Amino acid sequence: MHSLAVSLSFLVLAPLAASGASGTITFEKHIRPILKAQCFHCHGEEGEVKGGLDVRLTRFLLKGGDEGPAIVPGKAAESHLLKMVQSGEMPKGKSKLKATEIALIEQWIAQGAKTIRPEPETLGPEHAFTDEERAWWSIQPIQRPKVPAVKVAITNPIDAFIADKQAANQLSFSPEADPVTLIRRLSFDLTGLPPTPEEAQAFVAAYVKAPQQAYDEAITRLLASPAYGERWGRHWLDIAGYADSDGYTDKDLERKWAYKYRDYVINSLNKDKPFDQFVREQIAGDEMVPQPHKNLSAEAIEKITATGFLRMAADGTGAMNDKVAQNSTIADTIKIVSTAFYGMTIGCAQCHDHRYDPISQADYYRLRAVFEPGFNTTKWRVPNGRLVSLLTDEERAAGDKIEVEAKKLDAARAAKTEEFITEVLEKEVAKAEEKDRESLRTAYRTEVKKRTPEHLALLKKYPRVAKLSSGSLYLYDTTYKTKHADTLKKMAEEAAAVRATKPKEEFLQAFDELPLKPELVPATFVFHRGDIEQPKDKVKPGDLTVLAGQREIEVPEKASNLPTTGRRLAFANSLTDGKHPLLARVIVNQVWKRHFGKGIVNTPDDFGQLGERPSHPELLDWLASEFMRQGWSLKKLHHLILSSTTYRQSSLRDAERERIDPDNRLLSRMNVLRLEAETLRDSFLAVSGKLNPKLGGQPVPVTFNEEGQIVIGIDTRDAAGRQTGKFVTLEGEEYRRSIYVQARRSTPLEMFATFDAPAMTDPNCASRPVTTVSPQSLLLMNNGYMREHAQDLALRVQREAGPDLEKQVQRAWELSFSRSPSMSDQLEAMALVKAQTEHYKSHPAKLEHVAAAPEKKDADPALLGLAALCHALLSSNAFLYVD
């Protein structure tokens, strides 16, 4: 037992000594974080002092509770607190403290239970956080560190920061990657698509003559491509939690107009809209536009569309509108805001003070108060009630005039229908007994709810009269079938044609705050333990109180120059003022992560105590300051990062680098990155020549096939959910980029789900996992879409290379990998195609069409043989990964 304690003490004290703490353990720096995370909830927070014990200060521990003093300085073995945590009795209802934490408490008591500074007499709000918590790196003002002086020749400041760390660890940059690798890396990073063989060849030729010029021109060309906005729009939509459905309930109601926010994101990134403006519009675009939101200009439409960001959280109130669903929507929205712009887990303070970071529960509700007037739980609007119409008064008036004309045609058709009904009725009445004829006629013409028992009896006697209607006329008279039906059909088509000229009414899924009298603006209260039924103290809108020492954190409750409260606009302006410590750091880190596979902070949504520390903190601050200095331009940031030696390195590993830096956090080589789910599908479409480059618009629908798999296609199931077997063509829409495929939370496309695309069952996704699991290989081998992609690639190869097998293999390789096959690859590929062709001669098969009508005849064996090779290429690691 003694030796174990000594060992644990060594494990704790060794890093303390290494950090310059000289082995001295203090309450504020070492013990309070443990107690705050595990014990404050029951012993001090919100007046809760179970057992009479408050553990928030050392002197409270010395005073103790019902069991007497909790600690005896210098006598760890006699300290009640240590006994309780060693036995596991405390913390009650939680896992036992880690052995290192227990050892740390023991050593602290043994050293005399020291504090860094005198403790306050009382714990008021000004003592909510310690100096150590306020000194946390991510909430310090962004500095512009001096670029390190290094021995290696550098032209990009990024490389100086990286090389400085490498040199301190006996590392250096790897050689530059070859030109084909570089152009593929750039193309996938900036557009999410592989380069065409011709683009790759042109780059290599230019690179041989003038490497730097060719490289810079390639970056510029790719950044100017519309595909750039689609690629980087996908990244932001992850962070925003984009979905085309409401989620929350099993109904998962469709969001018909959410796609307009998606298109706003893509267009904004393609225009290189300054990112601070991009943020402001998403938080408060509606407050930048005059009220009421009618007859909107193009600029106003753009700003209101941007607020779709605040409508991305799951919202089940369209199906189940209650307080719980409302609160869940607000909580998820705050989580999206905090992870996207703060990189902090502010949502952890919804029920109590944050256990690890300097964020109080009141802070959480202060942030909620910024958005409360827009949500307004006192007059909650369900999702469809929040739609903003784009129809102008002029268009609406024009539509009303057109409707008047259409109704005239409807009236004429109704009169003609009545004429035909009367004609048929008289023929049927004539067939009745003479004594019944007049009464039968009267019974038929009498309003249904006013019919007497005698009327009903008579109609029952003559059912052909009873069933007579405009919809059943064709059953009564062959003349009607050939003449009358055509007349009515033509009249209906004329009315429909007139209505088709009416201006189409479209909507924005927006977050717009309605003007309210000051006394009607909903108040925000701290909920006791997060319980919506237990509101406590009223709070005003504001930023994190821990930032109060360096900036203004109060948000005005009501703007004097706006009909709305203006809270979100004031908050957005403060967040983007260039002095907020978090926003620029978070965005720069997200961009870095997308280029290198890991962020400088590898927990992009947690810059707090539980997140990873930055691998290069000075570089992160320099990049953040440079990003703002360059006008918050993402494209300039991309160019800066991609131009660095750090980015252009080879990804080849060697034993010495792996030994020194096994996770490559010092970036002495490039990381090999797997294609994301959407990029993988888009690449299949691109190399097969099927990719539809259409930008924007309504999402491509998804549905279930007969096997219950989620596929691209129009839903043709009946009311009972059964497949009708009907096929409805999508007219090429099925080949659009994956960012346009409908993102229903309950029905993610199989390939997307298998390759780690988020279904947004959580509010958002700041960092996708990268798993390696057997279903991925099985999907690449067996999925119907994979067979279709392979066949499409084979068809393209046949068209472009002709019948010569050697040329076919050459072209397939160029399309798939941007390079020619080696001699051994060429020979093995040709042998495979020949063997597979012979197989299909004796085992005929049809082409695969997942979202189309099935083939009726067998396919050419030569095509299927070539498709087998193409399937192997598309399933290979060389296709799946980018060096």
Question: Brief description of this entry?
Answer:
This protein is an all-alpha fold and about 900 residues long. It contains 35 helices and eight strands. The strands form four sheets. It has a two-stranded antiparallel sheet. Strands 3-4 form a two-stranded antiparallel sheet. The protein has a two-stranded antiparallel sheet with strand order 5-8.
Description:
The protein is mainly alpha-helical and 883 residues long. It folds into 6 domains: 2-118, no CATH class; 166-175 and 582-660, no CATH class; 186-229, no CATH class; 274-390 and 511-575, no CATH class; 393-504; 781-882, no CATH class. The strands form 4 sheets. The protein has a two-stranded antiparallel sheet. The chain has a two-stranded antiparallel ribbon with strand order 3-4. It is globular and about 120 Å long. The model is unreliable at 1-22 (pLDDT under 50). Keywords: Heme, Iron, Metal-binding, Signal. It holds the Pfam family PSCyt1.
Output the keywords.
mainly alpha, 3% strand, single chain, disordered N terminus, globular, 883 residues
Question: SS-based structural class?
Answer: mainly alpha
Ends: how far apart? 51 Å
Instruction: Output the number of helix runs.
Output: 35
What percent of residues adopt helix (DSSP H or I)? 40-55%
How many discrete domains?
Answer: 6
- pLDDT < 50 runs, ≥5 residues: 1-22
Apparent shape = globular
Helix and strand topology:
Elements (H helix, E strand, L loop, with lengths): L1 H17 L8 H12 L19 H6 L16 H8 L11 H12 L20 H4 L22 H12 L10 H13 L5 H13 L1 H13 L2 H15 L18 H12 L4 H10 L13 H9 L16 H20 L18 H15 L11 E3 L3 H39 L5 H9 L7 H9 L1 H4 L11 H22 L7 E3 L14 E4 L7 E5 L27 H9 L7 H14 L20 H13 L4 H9 L2 H4 L6 H6 L12 E2 L2 H11 L14 E3 L5 E3 L37 H5 L19 H9 L1 H18 L3 H13 L5 H20 L18 H14 L2 H4 E2 L1
Antiparallel strand pairs: 1-2, 3-4, 5-8, 6-7
Helix pairs in contact: 1-5, 2-5, 8-9, 8-10, 9-10, 11-12, 13-14, 13-22, 17-18, 17-21, 18-19, 23-24, 23-25, 31-32, 31-34, 32-33, 32-34, 33-34
